[in-house]
Amino acid sequence: MMQPTTLVLSAILIISIHQVLCVASEFLPEDSKLNTIELATKYKHVPVQFEVVTKDGYILALYRLPGRSRIPVLLTHGLGDSSDTWLLRGSTSLAITLADDGYDVWLANVRGNRYSRRHQHLDPDKDPEFWRYSFHEIGYYDLPAIIDTILRTTAAKSLTAISHSQGTTAFYVLGSQRKEYNSKINVLISLAPVAYLHHASPPISYLIELAPVIELVFEDLCIHEVFGDNTTVGNILHRLCPLPVIGYFVCVYGFAFPTSGFDPPELEPRFSQVSSAHFPAGTSSRSIVHFLQVGYRKEFAQYDYGKEANVKYYNSSEPPVYRLDRVTMPVALLVGANDHLSTVPDVELLKEELANVVYFNVNPRPLCNHLDFVWGRHMSDYLYPHIYEVLDSYKHF
User: Fold this and answer.
1) Residues tagged active-site
2) From 218's CA, which of 6, 9, 342, 357 has a CA 20 to 30 Å away?
């Protein structure tokens, strides 16, 4: 049993840490405290919000920055991210840059993140069933509902998609599982695409080796939501990571760079105070496990429930492999040579499997990593020219 003096000292320490965190938060950049609507409005594009309901009952937030382009442009974020990610660089962010140039920009939020943590019947705080999804359901249910909403609203026949990381994975699922949607995609610009993880670098490769153990830990501890704003870990990260100096070294040097690739010039300390206040935005434990399974099994396949359960779900002891040759939409692949997650060899393998790759680029900047495709300080110099080259090839005006 703790002595009274120890209890008092512990209480004082906790209160002191809390006060330090509160004081520090007062000096954070303004953009760290703004949501998607507030960020877009600050940079002179007042968004229109749509509520999208998927066929399996999830309620998704979708934002539009109206423009004059004939073909709408949909931006889809990566794992544990949100629509905020496309706005965090302010006037030089991709969403604002495209909107400034007249593009009709739409920002997606997939199930489970802070803007799409809703369901017609399930309570995310009480019903584990809410969190039983991965990139498969995002591609199979979320994207069709989002695409249909955009095309119905704009009366366009197709849209251009720009996706990052898991956002690209979901589109490959869409094209292979819902083949009718291939014709609704004018072109898919895949930033740091992920389908194969054969060559992932440490520490990701270590996590892949531990995939079965990690899955069991999630199950045994009943962990369904990961990194959400209401979770303990998510709350700690959003308080710790924006802190000056210590937050940058613990969260960026200790986690972000090892997993995505080291590139300090593009993710400077002041900006990390903004990005770490917005990311992570929450996801499901199954989403993480599914990616680890892809790396562990060395197959881009559906979720592995175990041999007996697979028979129930798939009528096969093994999960079906996604047929990438059925993804007939035009696809542009943009990859960074220093990306520890979406590696050049894995993207080259993806390029060989996809049916209609129309553009392939390994970014000439040697340090270009996984995060540079959404948060890079100088994206307008080394990334946007490639994006606009593809956009110009598929006339939007």
Assistant:
1) 165, 370
2) 342
